[in-house]
Write a structure and sequence with these properties.
elongated; four-stranded antiparallel beta sheet; Immunoglobulin-like
């Protein structure tokens, strides 16, 4: 690679996939691999693209925390979600010794608690 600080393109199309219903205890994220720089030049053979997964409970992403880093896979499962919260996720990509990409699109999900029917009365008919 001739320019280690070359800015590159993160075209992830972050996809939020729920594991079971939205009250489930985890959220699965998947994204497309990054294969080119912003100028559409292919990433060199042998360069390993890594990903960081970020999450926030605010849509403005002001308090985003990094959940995972140095991932080479294009998926992640967040098992630390809590019901009655809305989470906003994004991913950043990078190659070692390069500037991280801009963040991906933001995907959000509302985690609902499980619910059950309530019997209010029982009538016995003879």
């Amino acid at each position: 690679m001739t320019n280690k600080v070359k800015k590159w393109f993160l075209d992830l199309g972050l996809l939020l996939v729920m594991v079971c219903p939205t009250w489930a205890a985890s959220v699965s994220l998947t994204w497309d691999p990054v294969t080119t720089y912003a100028d559409t030049v292919p990433i060199e053979v042998g360069e390993v693209v890594k990903y960081d997964v970020w999450r926030d409970t605010n849509s403005n992403l002001s308090g985003a925390i990094r959940l995972a880093f140095d991932l080479t896979a294009t998926n992640y499962s967040d098992a630390s979600v809590v019901s009655k919260n809305t989470y906003y996720y994004f991913v950043r990509a990078y190659i070692v010794d390069t500037v991280p990409s801009d963040r991906s699109n933001v995907a959000s999900v509302r985690i609902w608690p499980p619910f059950k029917p309530v019997i209010r009365s029982i009538v016995v008919v003879k």
